[in-house]
Amino acid sequence: MTAIVIKTNQEIKYLRESNRIVALLLRYLAGIVRPGVTTAYLDHQAERFIHKHGAVPGFKGYMGYPATVCISINDEVVHGIPSPKRVIKEGDIVSIDAGVILKGFYGDAAITVPVGGVSPEARKLLQVTEESLYKGIEAAVVGNRVGDIGYAVQQWVEKHGFSVVRDYTGHGIGRKLHEPPQVPNYGERGKGALLRPGMTIAIEPMVNAGGFEVKTRNDGWTVVTADHSLSAHFEHTIAIMEDRTEILSRP
Ligand code: MF3
Ligand code: CO
Known about the structure:
Layout: H1 9-32, H2 39-52, E1 56-57, E2 69-73, E3 76-78, E4 93-102, E5 105-114, H3 120-139, H4 146-159, E6 163-164, E7 170-172, E8 179-183, E9 199-203, E10 206-208, E11 214-216, E12 223-225, E13 231-233, E14 236-240, E15 245-247
Antiparallel strand pairs: 1-4, 2-4, 3-12, 4-5, 6-10, 7-8, 7-9, 9-14, 10-13, 11-12, 14-15
The structure holds 2-amino-4-trifluoromethylsulfanyl-butyric acid (MF3) and cobalt (II) ion.
Cobalt (II) ion binds near residues 108, 204 and 235.
């Protein structure tokens, strides 16, 4: 395993730019998600948006991934592949995960949006998952450890009766989409790598309404909950600095 890459202020500036585009993209996509649109249409619009902003898609071709964004609906957890056959409908919860590269640096973030009126359980799941991301970010400060992040996320999620996915984690990010350290959404206080100024990481809780077990569909990508319960995903890329932690993927 290679060492955690500490970024200079200039490198963090580049990451701020790439992640700003991701933030704007997610806001744009959230605004055009509605019943009747296909996930392929959203993917196409995402690619146009990214190019218009001078960046390139970060996921396309990554480990052979075939699209610009990942769109995962209801019991789909992450890595859903956009398709012209997949039509969004009222009541769905739609997770959109987006990555770009600008000037050699990755941006990466995700949101889950409700389509029209969704069930009370779905609403609670979205709220708790997004809150758990912010709990994780609050724990991501100089002097804490990676385990403190996972602990904060897991506590919040389980306190509300949901479960955190174990098989996928957050990650360091920079010139590569996935750098060390891995950032699990579960953990123990005081365990794992020490958080230091200049670390840039993506924190991305994937939270299931039922059990934490997941499986991958035959397409080789789409991860679904084993019990077909609903799942939500929120992600931010952050920079840990001497005196504060900055969320880079916020418009
Ligand atoms: N946010 C996800 C991650 O960081 C997106 C990766 S999708 C892939 O792992 F297609 F690029 F693999
Ligand atoms: Co990520």
